[in-house]
Structures
1.
Amino acid sequence: MTGIPVTVERASASGALRRFFSRRASWIPVLAALAILIVMFIGAQAYFGNFLTPRVISSLLLDNAYLLILAVGMTFVILTGGIDLSVGAVMAFTGMLGASLLRDGLPVGVVVPVMLLIGAAMGLAVGIMVQYFDVQPFIASLAAMFAARGLAFMVSLSSIRVEDPAILWLQSTRIQAAPGSWFITPTGILAILVVIVGALLLAYTRFGRTIYAIGGNEQSARLMGLPVVRTKLLAYVVSGVCAGLAGVVFTAYTGASYPLNGIGTELDTIAAVVIGGTLLTGGSGYVLGSMIGVLVYGSIKTVISFLGAEQSWTRITIGALLLLFVVVQRIIVARSSRR
């Protein structure tokens, strides 16, 4: 008789779990990415023995802070059903412009806002092409990518070294409780703050709810009287601002700016966002998932570095994971459509 209550309890727990996943299907890819991250941590620690150390784990955020900021902005755009291929080039252009202005003696209090405004302007230009001229997001952002890369070369054909102490302080300062313990840099704090602000905007504001509505069904969002045009423009502006801020962070990270910085970064950003569970068709995804996707990406790079293998394996692994998550997303969308 004692086995009956246990069986009923297990059945009840199993039913509750199925109900949760049926109602929160959008969380399945996020939880899958989290599971992959945990398995990678456990496997790497078992193989190397010194992977889960404060230095290595802290460096994950330090080395990928700029990518995390870009991923937050990209999440907003992809949630609307769009794409932004210009973020890597905008990051390079704003970095080059900022380094040039700092070299000419302008204070950092002027240079950083200028970099953010330039990023916002580039994002707005892409949004205007998409919304008012009916240009496909892929083509509009591709044009912006070429324009931003060309502008970066117009600033200088060679690398510009950054010597401003305020910019270098962002990366060189390590905040830690004790020597040898976990640490974080101001660039890492900036990245985490961007994640928090992005998550709050999507979850608790009308702007965020409208973004999800547009991605789910833009025509329905228009019929409901939602500000579709303004929201889509703002989504691209958010992506542009994040690209400008990433320019600041990446400049601090490298201590210099170069016109070819950020080549391929837009693809890394899209891959991280998709691995984090955001649907490429829009309407489903979370900033937290994008953060997990960036950590998965960074962990793969670190593991391959530990192995001493060529970094080409990073691309191969990311490509395989991306394909896996796209398939998972298609299955979830198909099941949701049937329901």
2.
Amino acid sequence: MSSSLSAIILAAGKGTRMKSDLPKVLHKVLGKTMISRVIDQAKQAGAQKIVVVVGYKKEMVIESLQGTDVQFAVQEEQLGTAHAVQQCEPFFQNWNGHILVLSGDVPLLTGETLQKLISRHQENDADATLLTAELENPHGYGRILRNADDTLKDIVEEKDADEEIRKIKEINSGIYIFKKELLFSYLKHVDNKNAQGEYYLPDVLPLMVRDNRKIYLQKAEQSEEIQGVNTVEQLKLAEEKLKRIV
């Protein structure tokens, strides 16, 4: 199996709940932008190529990352996470290996956790591996249904979950590693038949499960690592948590 590793970092959103004109990923946690922290995570995990998806005020994001040795894919219209990842396909035409998909607003994730995700993926020669977490209050998140061998059986969104499934505390973190050729192949089959009319990356997973692809699960030891920052309050909380780590 090829050990080549790259990363796609999703950083195109505005972040309307931050109540700021600054692109969300440029907000700082302990003096360093969230996107810079996520790039550091990808490099610590061993990513040889990093493509950042930019959109809202893209010039500002690109300018802030001068000298960081990353490439930029532009998502002109924000049509969802699957659409964002699709914009990166031209960067991987002549490249084979595995692609980490990260979010630019998850500043507490550690390189160590990513390395565990990658190891689980490689040891099992998985087609995809998903980082999960256990939350005391999983309300609003897609719930993970596991097979006995730690592979994914299904992800059930909150709105589709019955009372029994809502008791499950293991959730999808939105952080993944895929075999490159399968990622871009399955993205072509994702539709936008949802209330927002957007193309969502997690929708590739049921398609892969249907085709008996091997999707393994790796649970983060610290659930706070995977929590994204969407509001000013969450930004302050992230700062407080990071102070305890560093």
3.
Amino acid sequence: MHPLTPDSAAPAAPPSRPYVQMLERVRYDGAYPTREKAEEVTTAVLTALGRRLTGEERVGLAARLPVEAARLFVSSAPEADRLTGWAFVKDLASRTGGTLATTRWDVGSVLGAVAQLAGPELLDRILAQLPSGYAILFGRPELTQAA
């Protein structure tokens, strides 16, 4: 074997402090028993959210997330279909095999942390881009105009 050819995968770099803090926030908010469970949920939700956002909001959010979270977020190309918040939860549940209730909980736990990292101005722009039903997932009331 060549001396520069690894015989096994290189060990993963330890997660950055901001990412660990994000995972601990998700773990606390979601009442998950381990950081590994919080990371599993975070991975699923950020990947799914990455399929929904485009343009400046996608770039802006990726820049505010910890590097590891940003990689997850941009790992999937945006999809053309515009899912409402509830359809987003149902789609994620079908992809992960979770129940609607636990998936809704997972989404809220992760997107609450994302909202804090995004800040109010960027979050306003993100919510303006997404169809109805996402505000509540990010921990905000869903404001609708009277007819």
4.
Amino acid sequence: MKITVTSRNPNSKAFPLTLELAGSPTTVTIDTLSDAIHKKLPKYYPDRQRVTTEDKRVLERGKNKSLADYGIKDEEVTLYFKDLGPQIGWRTVFLIEYFGPLIFHPLFYHLSALFYRSTFNHSTMQTVTYYLAILHFAKRELETLYIHRFSHGTMPFTNVFKNSAHYWILSGANLAFWVYGPWFAEGTTMSERSEVWIWGCVAVWAWAQLSNLATHVTLRNLRPPGTRSRAIPYGYGFDLVSCPNYFFEIVAWGAICVLTLSWSAVLFTVVATGQMYLWAIKKHKQYYKEFKNYPRSRKALFPFIA
């Protein structure tokens, strides 16, 4: 069949591109088309492409769908191309994001005399918070390497700076600076916490982190290696909400807020909760749209609420 690929950018010099592909709309897959574009124009590797029909339906790769699945029936067709720009793998993005706090927390904690221009002993609250923060982001790095399987391979490279700012600034430099400062040092009124207070927060944090890990393992097991398949998750946490991994993440950071009583921890938690709520609503709607038998009693993020 004959496919004419034209760019939605009127200034593009690489398009229109004419492809002659063996087969018919029922046998030519989206991956075949994407690979053919890449072969003709090596600059536009598959993850950098967005190809749509005239009515702007996106032809999705990795789902083993043919052109006919998107309503294309003619042996000659015109499709539309958009350059998504240089891409970066999601796994790499996550590793970069979580690495920031692993730099800033040790710097402010161990080099406090340099940053605060004074010498003091860290309080129990500061020390406990430090180790909880390090364990949290080390866990996230290990999950990225060994547990997560991503439904989307890449994202635009420029987005890595925006995404990383959330972690490097809010949960990295900002949180570390205000929590490990002399105002929370040993012997100060602001650092006073009972053992029940401290270890109660640690217990809630640990439960939330282990619960978060369990939900990540459940999601991993739904997606065979090398695929982007989706299925309905069931089990611990998922009987109540569509995104229990986000819910347990919020609980863990809520415990740190109570432990530190720091506005910097509250700021990060509020911003993170808002973002995770938006993600949860989007995923919740996708589940309803994709699976007709999706449990109607589930909420998106907060059990019994929303």
